[in-house]
Amino acid sequence: MPEIVQTTGETLRAPSPSDEQLAAAYQRSGETSLLEELARRHLPKVSSLVSQIVLEPSAAEDVTQETFLRAFRRLDSFRGDSQFGTWLYRVALNTAYSHQKRRARSPVEYHGGLHEFDTAGTSPDGRMLRAELDGQVRAALSELSPKLRAAIVLTSIHGLKAAEAAEIEGCTIATMYWRIHKARKLLLRRLEDYLSP
Known about the structure:
Layout: E1 4-7, E2 10-13, H1 19-29, H2 32-54, H3 57-73, H4 84-102, H5 124-142, H6 146-157, H7 162-169, H8 173-195
Antiparallel strand pairs: 1-2
Helix pairs in contact: 1-2, 2-3, 2-4, 2-6, 3-4, 4-7, 5-8, 6-7, 6-8, 7-8
């Protein structure tokens, strides 16, 4: 946690320790407040990623919790070769993939929206069209394999570069570009009738 430093009448905040510094400090001390800080920093992004891969809100909560339990149990395996967030995303994806494999292969219903739409100033028709489009996109995403869905979620929704997504997924950049291309192609094909003028 940042400390307050008093200098010549000014109160300054010391910079917050990096995720990597917190992880290293936990490995040395075992202080659980350090894990709580890491969880606080990363819970929103991990929860969002998992919910867009698992596609079931109640299961996504369980998988998110399991992600943090796995990550913190295996924190000694974090060597600092990549950023902590990248390593944690990898744990989250592996946990989500394990969940998907355990679950019977059946159609899933996607409950997470791609965008938070501000519908306050739109007409009822506009809101209805947005809801319909969101439903179509959700249905199309639910038909993608978890790896293709992850490629789209990581790059198009979470805004990561293909190289970052490839590092998280543990694949080559070329493979990630192929997954992104394939996922977009399948989504466009699925949404073709809806998007045609």
